[in-house]
Design goal:
- By secondary structure, the protein is α+β, with helices and mostly antiparallel strands.
- The protein has 2 domains: 57 residues, Arc Repressor Mutant, subunit A (Orthogonal Bundle), CATH 1.10.10; 175 residues, GAF domain (Beta-Lactamase, 2-Layer Sandwich), CATH 3.30.450.40.
- It is built from 10 helices and 8 strands.
- The strands form 2 sheets. Strands 5-4-3-8-7-6 form a 6-stranded antiparallel β-sheet. A two-stranded antiparallel sheet has the order 1-2.
- A hairpin with a 6-residue loop joins strand 6 and strand 7.
- Helix 5 runs antiparallel to helix 9.
- It is elongated and about 55 Å long.
């Protein structure tokens, strides 16, 4: 299912077999089961397999019932209105994060990301803001090939220390050229961050010299969301671990 969801075109049984290194007979049985359940369907022309919209329907219901979503949505909407930036809420799905909610700002860049899309933790500001507060063993296990272009693995440790010292992460052009992002972590029911809040816009609307005042407000928003979720004791416990 993950393989088919990631592919832009329908895939045949042989292609799936070769990609996943699974016996052809097993692939056929799995596809039959998924087809009967409605999770995959065959393309009318090629008869190759693709994901149906059923998984999206199920995911939409899960997100709609998520207990944190109502709190997060109302607060990032206010943050977007105040700053004019696009504000995004993410959730940790180690070793990735998922885009949970988004409010477009008047000054914000109309990002092509979709809610439910995942991204490696080390790729963008939103993930780095989470990764900086993970337990050492979890941080050390993150794939270094997830680092953005231009950021070398040996500089990651110093970058993580800087994020902890400042309380926020930034990236320039991590997903799209000329788009800057600033992110802060939020906590809920664990000493590991629940996710992050990202402020993003084109570099002309969010130049690097605007980071300091924006960071102060972003940290306020992150703290308010953490408090509203009841995660302050976990935030303090996590921060105490890193001094």
């Amino acid at each position: 299912m993950e393989y088919l969801a990631a592919e832009s075109e329908p895939r045949g049984i042989t292609q799936i077999t070769d990609a996943l290194k699974i016996e052809k007979s097993a692939v056929q049985r799995i596809l039959y089961t998924l087809s009967q359940a409605g999770y995959v369907e065959q393309d009318d022309g090629s008869r190759k397999y693709k994901m149906s919209l059923l998984l999206w329907s199920l995911g939409s219901r899960i997100i709609a019932r998520h207990p944190a979503l109502r709190v997060v949505h109302s607060m990032i909407r206010m943050a977007s209105q105040k700053t004019g930036y696009t504000v995004i809420a993410t959730k940790l799905l180690y070793p990735h994060f998922i885009y949970l909610e988004k409010v477009e700002g008047l000054k914000g860049h109309l990002l092509s990301i979709s809610l439910g899309e995942t991204m490696p933790l080390l790729r963008t500001a939103g993930g780095l803001a989470i990764a900086a507060y993970l337990p050492p063993q979890a941080l050390a296990s993150l794939p270094r090939d997830h680092l953005p272009i231009g950021r070398e693995p040996e500089t990651l440790e110093s970058a993580i220390r800087a994020i902890r010292r400042r309380g926020y992460a930034t990236t320039e052009g991590a997903i799209r050229t000329n788009v800057n992002s600033l992110a802060v972590p939020v906590w809920w029911q664990s000493t590991e961050p629940f996710g992050s809040i990202i402020f993003t816009a084109e570099d002309g609307a969010m130049p690097q010299d605007s980071y300091a005042p924006l960071a102060e407000y972003a940290q306020y928003v992150g703290t308010e969301i953490t408090n509203a979720l009841g995660g302050d004791k976990y935030r303090r416990a996590c921060l105490n671990q890193f001094g």
